[in-house]
Write a structure and sequence with these properties.
The structure is a single chain. The protein is α+β, with helices and mostly antiparallel strands and 592 residues long. It has one domain. 25% of the residues lie in helices and 22% in strands. It has 15 helices and 24 strands. α1 runs parallel beside α9. The radius of gyration is 23 Å and the shape is globular.
């Protein structure tokens, strides 16, 4: 056995050792928990410079927990508390922005600090150079600032953790942006012991971030990385090559699948499910597109579409698995906000653009809606959305249980609404399953949950799916239940959208047993569920109404809020290569 293969085997064994067995908790007792795994506070230097944010860690956690916080003289509170939160401040120059505004801080005597405290903002180019460097500022070493900020992040995580009620995860964002192409990852730790974050200033290569995770894991410090919204990656997030431009091989595929078991399908800067150019037959593919590279004026609005969206990546992964025996793109889904104001809120009625919150003056609203001659900011705020949520099915609201569910991808994402979504698949689900009082226990005993893998297809049968969706108690009724299938035939991926249930006037719940009418047991495939609400006004429409202004013409009047499940994979039993890959890339999958 090669040393690298042995190292990967040890990593998998370490992960498996953290996962509860069925004997410790009955799987059908799992509950759904909602939270945000991507939030920035004033410890993120860009939040301070670009948004003027001063919200710190304590207020961010208190707001997520449902308490009122002061924001620019206003008292703000979430409509409902979150169950869990991960503050993921940028590793790059963490805490330095705050220090530059402190009159008695270590950077107080620098010219930049004096200018900022006098109200003279530094040019954005200078801010960018600061963010992308570890060099001293005017001769002042910033390493003690970074170490102090990370220590304060860890202390705040423990200070606000309420096991069983409110879970706080230690995390940070690794923010690699080569030529304004977003390759960011959020690193989420299972516990609260972690070394100083590995930043993109240490290396802009995802492979080197994985090495950091693997070395920590070998020391007993478990963590995973969540790729940022891929829609602004300019085709790099799910490219068919590694960072050196070489074709993906089995070793790369195994490392990526192990270190990145989930991805961010929706956040305030758009959805990464699919694009009309990739899925022309999907009438819902144009939802909340954010087609702006993160480079400001002069950059092309739309980056490379291919390589930037999940559905295509999932198909590419199936095809790669057939060719090289490993699937680099075997991942589930989460939703997040990526808000830079410290306040994790996802309701259309309360969203005001990233870094903004509460009531706004009319002139600011005009600028935000693009109805005045004031130039739009670097990030086109009107194109942003209210951010998403992650739904996790776990035995209890603790770090360990929630993290293990993230590892096995028993997760779903929403566009900010609290739709509840649960999906199972098996070979022998009977038509009466929906009517049984022990439905969930039977579904789990005879199949797999989302994030899992089906194997050993029964001759002449296709898999049956149990789908359970319930509306947000404070949201709109459910309008549509869909299954999207992705499969590979002769090495080429294909996709198809199936309408499973349609409620013309809306429904509180949508439940179904669905069977694939086109199933071919020889073809690798995956299935995920998409649930849609009835249309409701978009935040930009609500904001325009509140200010008695016309709504922006370049944005839709309404939004069809939705939820996406993590996929369920099917692997033909004849493929020994796929079976071998699954043992590494999906250490927690369950087969019937």
């Amino acid at each position: 056995m090669k040393p690298r293969d042995r190292m990967i085997e040890l990593f998998v064994a370490a992960i498996l050792s953290t996962i509860p067995t069925v004997a410790t908790a009955e799987k059908h007792e799992r509950n759904v928990y909602y939270g945000d795994l991507h939030l920035h506070t004033s410890y993120s230097t860009d939040a301070v410079f670009l948004s003027g944010i001063r919200i710190g860690l304590d207020d961010a956690y208190r707001f997520a927990r449902g308490e009122a916080v002061d924001y620019s003289g206003q008292s703000l509170r979430r409509a409902e508390p979150l169950d869990f939160i991960a503050v993921t401040d940028h590793a790059e120059q963490m805490g330095v922005g705050r220090a530059l505004f402190e009159a008695d801080g270590p950077l107080a005597q620098t010219e930049m600090s004096k200018a900022l405290r006098a109200g003279r903002h530094a040019p954005i180019e200078e801010v960018g150079r600061l963010f992308q460097s570890k060099q001293p500022i005017a001769g002042v070493d910033v390493l003690p600032i970074l170490e102090g900020a990370w220590r304060e992040e860890k202390e705040a995580v423990d200070r606000h953790h309420r096991p069983g009620t409110f879970t706080t995860f230690l995390g940070y964002e690794w923010s690699s942006s080569p030529k304004s192409q977003n390759l960011h990852r959020n690193v989420i730790f299972r516990g609260n012991e972690a070394p100083l974050p590995f930043s993109s200033n240490d290396s802009p290569r995802p492979e080197d971030l994985w090495t950091y995770l693997e070395r920590n894991r070998a020391r007993g410090i478990e963590a995973l990385a969540i790729p940022h919204n891929a829609d602004v990656s300019n085709g790099l997030m799910y490219a068919l090559t590694d960072s050196d431009g070489k074709p993906i091989d089995a070793e790369y595929a195994r490392r990526r699948a192990l270190n990145e078991p989930i991805g961010e399908i929706y956040q305030s800067k758009g959805q990464s499910e699919t694009h009309p150019l990739l899925s022309p037959s999907d009438e819902l593919a144009g939802f909340e597109l954010f087609e702006h590279l993160m480079g400001g004026p002069g950059r092309p609005q739309r980056g490379q579409v291919s390589g930037s969206y999940f559905r295509e990546a999932w198909g590419r992964g199936l095809a790669l698995s057939e060719r090289i025996g490993a699937n680099p793109f075997r991942f589930g889904v989460v939703g997040a906000t990526d808000l830079h104001n410290g306040l994790a809120d996802t309701r259309e009625a309360t969203y005001r653009g990233p870094g903004l919150a509460g009531d706004l003056p009319t002139d600011v609203v005009k600028t935000l809606l693009g109805t005045s001659e004031i130039p739009n900011p670097v990030i086109p705020l009107i194109a942003t959305g209210s951010g998403g949520l992650t739904g996790i099915w776990a035995e209890e609201n603790t770090r360990e249980a929630l993290y293990d569910a993230l590892r096995r991808s028993e997760t779903f994402a929403t566009s900010g609404t609290r739709i509840s979504l649960r999906v199972f698949a098996g070979w022998n689900y009977g038509p009466d399953l929906l009517r049984r009082s022990d439905m969930i226990a039977r579904a789990e005993a005879g199949g797999v949950a989302m994030g899992g893998t089906l194997t050993d297809a029964a001759t002449g049968r296709s898999p049956r799916f149990l789908i359970l969706a319930q509306q947000d108690a404070k949201g709109a009724r459910l309008e549509r239940l869909q299954i999207i299938k992705v499969w590979v035939r002769k090495g080429e991926p294909s996709e198809k959208v199936f309408d499973v249930e349609v409620a013309q006037d809306g429904a509180r719940t949508l439940e179904a047993i669905w069977q694939d009418p086109d199933f071919d047991a020889t073809e690798p495939s995956l299935y995920y569920v998409r649930v849609l609400e009835m249309p409701t006004p978009r935040w930009s429409t609500l904001l325009a109404r509140s200010a008695n202004l016309p709504r922006p013409k370049d944005q839709p009047e309404s939004i069809r809020e939705r939820a996406w499940s993590s996929p369920i994979w099917y692997e033909p039993s004849r493929s020994s290569a796929s079976a071998g890959e699954k043992s590494v890339a999906d250490p927690t999958s369950r087969t019937d």
